[in-house]
Every structure is written in structure tokens, then in C-alpha cells.
Amino acid sequence: MKHRINIRGVMVPNDYKWYYDYFGEDCTCPKDVQQVMDAFMEGDEIEVYINSPGGVIDIGSEIYTLLKSRKDNVKIYITGEACSAASVAAMAAYCEMSPTALMMVHCVSTYAEGNHSSLEHTAEVLRTADRALCSAYVDKSGMTEEEALEMMEHTTWLTAEQAQERGLIDAVMFRDGVEAAPLTAGPLFSLPTKEQMDRADRAMKAGQRESDSPSMEQVKFNLLKLRGEKR
User: Fold this and answer.
1) Would residue 84 show up in a list of annotated catalytic residues for this protein?
2) What's the helix, strand, coil split of the chain in %, to 5?
3) pTM given for the model
């Protein structure tokens, strides 16, 4: 039996998924992958289709680990883009990439504030995270840690051919003449703020308990306006 996992849109924690679902936006959380894994039986196969700009690094790591645990039964296909944390997930098993797709690898980023000691500590944490994540590229490709870190340091964008040359994928899709998938671009990633999620939650609850409350279409319209505010 074959199981399909779609890693589409941003990669978010489980408790953020409802927010993206509410607005009808693509996203992927570890629970989406775990549900397929829970249905897995001996002899089953899993096909993973990736078109994601990435997201939270520990989510990429968790999904990578889940897929890696079934490596021999997993095939991964990058159909649009596999950027940032999504590129880490793509390293988990045999992987093919559409000739129109892109892969991007870069260093971990975050926001920081405080005195020089706090900022220096944050910088060291980021360097440690970079070394942890680059192990996925090293294990897949056979490149050295130094080579992987240099690739990340330069925010490297790769075509399917370039990714294959570096050993990051196993094959380029559609070399038998089948029409290639269209190139797609993902949005810049940023989780919604707690304030935005609280507003969405209040709007949903108000709509459920008040018969004279605005329609869900009106609620969504108002929340979409809120989302345009500076985060």
C-alpha cells in the first residue's frame, strides 16, 4: 500500500496549524506526517511531495527524523521548492527533484535583543544550530561539514542539476520525457504573532456563541485586514 505525504506551504508547530487552516493557507506540521506514519504497516511505501519555503527549524528536524525512521520505504519528490527547513526534510531518504524546482539552504536566523553578552550567546546558539542542521546535508551527500556550512553561509540556491551534482538529491525527475511540473514560488515565512492568533481565536468563538454575530466570511475579511498590520 502507498501512503502520500504533502509537505506544502510553511512548516509550523502543531498548535499553529489551525491558524493557517482557518485562512485556507497551505502549511505542514509534524502531526500531519505522524498520522501517515501511524497508518504505516510492514511493506507499505510512502511518497513525500515537497513544495515549501521552509519554516521553524525544529519542525524541519522533527519531520526529517520521522521520515528518516522509514528511510527504506520512503521516496521524496521536490515538485516546486524545498527551501530552508524543507531542504532538511528532503535529505531524509531517496529524493528526486523536478527540473523546474529549486532548493535553497541557508544559516539559521532569529531575532535577538539585549546586551553584548546576550547577543554573543545568541550568535553561538545559531552557530550550534547550523552545525546540527548541516549534518543532514553531510549524511545525504557525503560532503564535509565545512563544505555544508559554507553552502549554508552563502544562502545557496540550487537547480535540480546542481543539487544532483552536490549529492543532495538522487535523480532529476522527468528525464524520460514526461512533462515537467510548473515552477512555483513560496511566500516569505513568518509565524503569526500571539496577538493575531488570539484575535482569530476570539473571532471564531464569538461566531460560535452569538447568533447575531458576523458571518464567517465577514470575520475572515476583518481578520485578513488585521493580518496586514505590522507584526
Assistant:
1) yes
2) 50, 20, 35
3) 0.78
